[in-house]
Design the sequence.
C-alpha cells in the first residue's frame, strides 16, 4: 500500500471506553469501525457523502476486510485514521488504511474491498463521477 500521488483523508478518533476490553486495550473489531469512519470521511472530503451514493441507487458491499495489528491502542488515546483508494475498478474498489497515534507510530494497517451493487442487489458499474475518487 502506498499513498504516493493519492488523495489521503485523515480522520481523528478518540478511543471510547466501550471500544476496549477489560485491560483498556482497543478490541480488534473496533479498528474495522475506525476504517469505516475513515472511509466515510474520505468520501466527504472528496465533496460528496455515502448517502449521496445511496440516493443515486447504489451501495458498496464489503467483500473483504484485512487488518494487520502492529501496536495496541488504549482507552482515551487519540488516533488518526488515514484512508485512500488503493485500487479502482469498474465494479469494485479497494480502500487502504493506516491508523497512527499522535506520535505518528503505526498502530494498524489494513484494507477493505467493495463491490458496487444496485438497489436490486445486482453487481453494477460504479458511476463515472464516483470512479474519480482515486484521482
Sequence:
Amino acid at each position: 500500500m502506498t499513498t504516493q500521488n493519492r488523495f489521503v483523508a485523515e480522520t481523528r478518533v478518540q478511543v471510547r471506553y466501550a471500544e476496549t476490553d477489560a485491560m483498556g486495550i482497543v478490541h480488534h473489531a473496533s479498528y474495522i469501525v475506525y476504517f469505516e469512519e475513515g472511509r466515510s470521511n474520505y468520501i466527504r472530503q472528496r465533496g460528496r457523502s455515502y448517502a449521496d451514493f445511496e440516493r443515486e441507487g447504489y451501495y458498496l458491499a464489503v467483500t473483504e476486510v484485512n487488518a494487520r495489528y502492529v501496536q495496541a491502542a488504549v482507552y482515551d488515546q487519540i488516533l488518526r485514521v488515514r484512508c485512500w483508494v488503493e485500487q479502482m475498478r469498474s465494479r469494485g474498489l479497494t480502500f487502504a488504511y493506516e491508523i497512527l497515534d499522535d506520535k505518528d507510530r503505526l498502530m494498524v494497517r489494513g484494507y477493505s474491498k467493495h463491490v458496487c451493487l444496485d438497489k436490486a442487489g445486482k453487481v453494477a458499474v460504479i458511476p463515472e463521477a464516483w470512479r474519480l475518487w482515486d484521482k
Notes: The longest strand covers residues 106-118. The chain is about 20% helix and 40% strand. The chain has one domain: 9-134. The mean pLDDT is 94.
